[in-house]
UniProtKB/TrEMBL annotation:
The chain crosses the membrane at residues 56-76. This is Bestrophin homolog. Keywords: Membrane, Transmembrane, Transmembrane helix. GO terms for biological process: endocytosis; molting cycle, collagen and cuticulin-based cuticle. It comes from the Eukaryota.
């Protein structure tokens, strides 16, 4: 659909608008400001700084340094992930005098033990069509 709009509307519009433009180009005149000696020194300083910086970035040493920093970053991240506690509870995130701790207590002590379904893996399941075998599991 985008190509249709480009060919049907945009291209003819460019042709129509281009007919009204003059053929000759006008040179843009920028007024010259007298450069202060201090700004020239600052520009030269940054130009040399950028030259050395760009040479360093394009060198092999910068690439090796980048790879080393990335390896260190990943190592620290993996060690941090391994050190995380997995027994985090909602009450650990809240202040001890918070009213939300009561809701978390109700969830932990009442709702989870009563309503959480427990799955058992049975190695030798009974024949569930036979009521005598099924009686032990009911």
């Amino acid at each position: 659909m985008d190509m249709l709009y480009q060919f049907a509307f945009y291209a003819p519009l460019l042709v129509v608008c281009a007919e009204r433009q003059s053929v000759a180009y006008e040179q843009v005149k920028v007024p010259k400001k007298p450069d202060v000696d201090c700004t020239i020194k600052i520009r030269k300083f940054f130009a040399t700084l950028i030259k050395y910086y760009s040479k360093f970035i394009a060198s092999l040493w910068a690439e090796l340094m980048f790879v080393g920093v990335m390896i260190a970053y990943l190592y620290i991240s993996i060690c941090g992930i391994k050190a995380l506690r997995t027994d985090m509870d909602g009450s650990m995130l809240l202040p001890s005098d918070s009213q939300s701790n009561e809701g978390i207590r109700i969830m932990n002590e009442v709702i989870w033990p009563d309503y959480l379904g427990i799955n058992y893996v049975i190695r030798n399941p009974p024949d569930f069509s036979d009521p005598l075998e099924y009686r032990k599991f009911a």
